[in-house]
Amino acid sequence: MGLADLHIHTIYSDGSATVEEVLRKAVSLGLDTIAITDHNEIEGAVKARELALSWNLGVEVIVGEEITTADGHVVGLFLKDRIRPLLSAEATVDEIHRQGGLAVAVHPFSLWLKLFRCGGVGKLADRLQFDAIETINGSPTEGLGNILAGRFNRGKKLAGVGGSDAHTAEAVGQGVTIFPGRGPAMVFEAIRNKAVIAKTGRSALRAMVDFVYQHLMGRMALYGPKGGGLDQPVIN
Ligand SMILES: [Zn+2]
Ligand SMILES: [Zn+2]
Questions:
Q1: Domain total for the chain?
Q2: The domain containing residue 106 runs over which residues?
Q3: Which residue has the higher pLDDT, 174 or 206?
Q4: What share of the chain has pLDDT > 70, as a percent?
Q5: Separation of CA 39 and ligand 2 centre (Å)
Q6: Does some domain include residue 98?
Q7: Dist. CA 9 → ligand 2 center (Å)
Q8: Nearest ligand to the C-alpha of residue 38?
Q9: What is the largest distance, in Å, between two alpha-carbon atoms of the chain?
Q10: How far is the CA of 107 from the centre of ligand 1 (A)?
Q11: How far is the CA of 66 from the centre of ligand 1 (A)?
Q12: Looking at beta carbons, which pairs linking 209-217 to residues 24 or more positions away fall under 8 Å?
């Protein structure tokens, strides 16, 4: 079985971890696949994929992006090009598919993130052509949101995936997706076939302590211009 964390931020958006730190942490956890999903940006993901290949680390990288849509956050996986923010969720999902990627409704029912105008798409998760719903988001605030997402997807209409939503290296692996095989191509197949299982990580407390520390040290620009908030996404 493969182990993937499909939702990770780096310093290319509002995370505190460099691409190198994320890769090292992923290797130490035995993850074979990670998706780098910075807010409205794919540069870090592209760099991570190149580094992972040239270092031959045993972990492979999916180029992803967490796009701030007019209807909430949407993650695109297996992207070729950056998708600009503030399109409708529907247009964003269409663009992800046009690039041959997969669309994930991340933290669809997060109450906390919604306060910061960083919420998910809610019930659009099954009205639009999403390929997956994030039923496990590893953020310390997402306990209730995860329960609501799991309930919403009870009939398994969509593939239920897990990701850490890590904004620090320590938090990588706090949410994972288990799938048959190893590597990005098998993740793609498994999501298409709904053959995935979402799981939470173990050291949630340590991850939370690190999160607060990194935030207090000013290493994260959470909810700021690079944080994917609806009111101030980065538009280049
Ligand atoms: Zn988000
Ligand atoms: Zn995120």
A1: 1
A2: 2-216
A3: 174
A4: 92
A5: 7
A6: yes
A7: 6
A8: 2
A9: 43
A10: 7
A11: 7
A12: 210/168, 210/170, 210/171, 211/140, 211/167, 211/168, 211/170, 211/171, 214/16, 214/167, 214/168
Q: Does 228 reside within a domain? A: no
Instruction: Give 25 Cα–ligand 2 centroid separation in angstroms.
Output: 18
For the segment 81-120, what is each residue's pLDDT rounded down to a tens digit?
Answer: 999 999 999 999 999 999 999 999 999 999 888 887 889 9
Is 206 a member of any domain? yes
In the reported structure, the alpha carbon of residue 168 is separated from the centroid of ligand 1 by a whole-number distance in angstroms of 14
Integer CA distances (angstroms), 216 to 112, 165, 227, in order: 19, 19, 16
Tokens of 12: 């290319």
Spacing, Cα 68 to ligand 2 middle (Å): 10
CATH number of the domain at 24, please.
Answer: 3.20.20.140
Using the mean position of ligand 2's atoms as its centre, give its distance from the Cα of residue 53 in Å.
24
Instruction: Please tell me the number of the ligand nearest to residue 167's CA.
Output: 2
Residue 204: its pLDDT value, please? 61
Q: What distance in angstroms lies between residue 119's CA and the mean position of ligand 1's atoms? A: 6
User: Relative to the alpha carbon of 230, which ligand is closest?
Assistant: 1
Q: Decide: 30 and 56 in contact? Cβ < 8 Å.
A: no
Position 224 in a domain: no
For residues 25-52, average pLDDT:
97
The residue type of 153 is N
Could you give phi then psi for residue 12, rounded to 5 degrees?
-75, -15
Which of 97-106, 165-174, 216-225 is the least confident region? 216-225
